[in-house]
Amino acid sequence: MKQLSPSPEQEPAIIDRGRDVVVTAGAGTGKTRTLVARYLALLSEDIPLRQIVAITFTQKAAREMRNRVREAIRDYIGDPGLKGTERSFWQRRYGELDAARISTIHSLCAEILYTHPAEAGVDPRFEVLDEGGAALLQTQAIEEALAWAADNMAQVSLFALLGEGGLRDTLTMLLKQRLDAQSIFASLPADLMSHWGQILTGRQQQILTTLTSDKGWLAWVELLRTNAANDPTDKLEIQRQAALAAIDGATGILAGQLASLASLSELNLTGGAATKWPQGKVQVTEVKTA
Predict the structure, then answer these.
(1) Are 12 and 21 in contact (CB under 8 A)?
(2) pLDDT by residue (tens digit) across 33-80?
(3) How many CB atoms lie within 10 A of CB 23?
(4) Which of 60, 89, 136, 234 has its CA at a distance of 20 to 30 angstroms from the CA of residue 249?
(5) Is the pLDDT of residue 143 over 90?
(6) How many other CB atoms are found less than 10 A from the CB of residue 31?
(7) pLDDT at residue 4, rounded to an integer
């Protein structure tokens, strides 16, 4: 409608049909006015009112848009120079506005569900939660989940791993992204722990193979094999032999290999008398480094 005085940049968003139109602009630049003008343009084409849907983020924005549409039509039909047929057309359209689908997405979905409860499989007496009620239910659900986890041996370890605050944050995130979370959980194997175990075993085997084939590792092992003390009772010599035993024992199943190599971290390298090694202090240092 011309009294809205759309700019050349706004006109495509108002009159284009058969394709999607995206409007991006800063605050106060006329986005709402453009939407109102597009809505009025659709009304002017005599499209049935219930076939036009305008969705807003908030109830306040929906009320504002509805009021602007009413005001624009009211001003238009108040023009004394308007032809009778044109006035009658817009008076009819104005009278239909109480049934206009100008609302939030929640309101639109609620309307559809109220109209078709059987097809949707919902109780026709359902109510739409407001933000406050939804937040309260979410808090209650999280607290109940935490209490349940605290009473179950299989889940209580999560508190030590993530902490109560971390668990609460995780549950909050899962609830906010529940559709994505449901999709991810549905795609997980039935025996998740076994699946994770297989992945872990494969990764451990890969790391172990990389370690034991590394040139640096092989050089240090060779150094340990070829550098022995003159005195087999020397404390460092005992640790050298223990290290070689652990390395040579890293065979067979993966768990045994890992356990054998893990024992290397328990070696005591504080001993070692330089006088008991052929090359003295230098050799002691090299063996300890290896």
Answers:
(1) yes
(2) 888 888 998 999 999 999 999 988 888 989 999 999 999 999 989 888
(3) 15
(4) 234
(5) yes
(6) 15
(7) 60
Q: What does the alpha-carbon distance between residue 2 and residue 33 come to, in Å, rounded to a whole number?
A: 12
Instruction: Transcribe the chain into DSSP letters.
Output: -GGG---TTTHHHHH--SS-------TTSSHHHHHHHHHHHHHHTT--GGG-EEEESSHHHHHHHHHHHHHHHHHHHT-TTS-HHHHHHHHHHHHTGGG-EEEEHHHHHHHHHHH-HHHHT--TT--PPPHHHHHHHHHHHHHHHHHHHHT-HHHHHHHHHHHHHHHHHHHHHHHHTHHHHHHHHHHS-SSHHHHHHHHHHHHHHHHHHHHHT-HHHHHHHHHHHH---S-TTSHHHHHHHHHHHHHHT--SSHHHHHHHHHGGGG---S---GGGSTTHHHHHHHHHH-
What's the whole-model pTM score?
0.50
Q: Are 232 and 273 in contact (CB under 8 A)?
A: no
Q: Give 26's pLDDT tier (boundaries 50, 70, 90).
A: confident
Q: Does 2 have pLDDT greater than 70? A: no
Residue with tokens 């349940």: 148
Count of C-beta atoms within a 10 Å radius of residue 20:
5
